[in-house]
Request: fold
Amino acid sequence: MSKENGNMHETAPVIDCRQVTRTYSEGPEKLTIFSDISLQVAAGETVAIVGSSGAGKTTLLNLLGGLDRPSSGQISICGNDIHRLSEAGRARFRNKHLGFVYQFHHLLPEFPALENVMMPCALGGMAISAAKKKAEGFLTQVGLAERLAHKPGELSGGERQRVAIARAW
Reply:
C-alpha cells in the first residue's frame, strides 16, 4: 500500500504472474514443468527463485522475460501483458525495460567492454554518443573505468560478469 494525496491505494506489482503453467510436448508425451504458479513482485522488492535442478527456475525466468510463452495463464510486466505482443514487440519491450545477467556472461568476444555495454542502447535507438556516456557510467559504477577498452578475453571472470551486469542495467 502507498499513501498519495492522503488516500491509501494499492500499487500494481511490477511482475504479476497469474496461474501460469508451462508444458512441453514431445510426440505423445507431455512434460509439465510447473502448473498454476502465481507470483507478484512489487517495485523495490527483492526476490530469489531457488529450487533443485530441473524445478523450472530458468523456464520461469524465460517466461518472465518474454523469451518463451506460457502454456496457460497470464504474465504482466509493468502493466503490460508481454505475451500479447508480437515477437518484435517483445524484443523492443525487453530492450527498453529488462536486463538479463546470465550465469555465463554472453559477451561478444570481438568487442571491448565499452562496446559490449553500449550495444543494447544503440540497438534500442539511442544515439551512439549517449550510449557511450551511459555505458561508461555503468562500467565505472561496477569498478571497470580502467578496463573500457579491454576485450572479454583480456578480463578476469569476475570482470566479465561485471561487464554483463553493466550491460543489463
Q: What stands out?
A: The radius of gyration is 19 Å. Strands lie at 2-4, 7-9, 15-26, 29-41, 72-77, 80-81. The chain is about 35% helix and 25% strand.
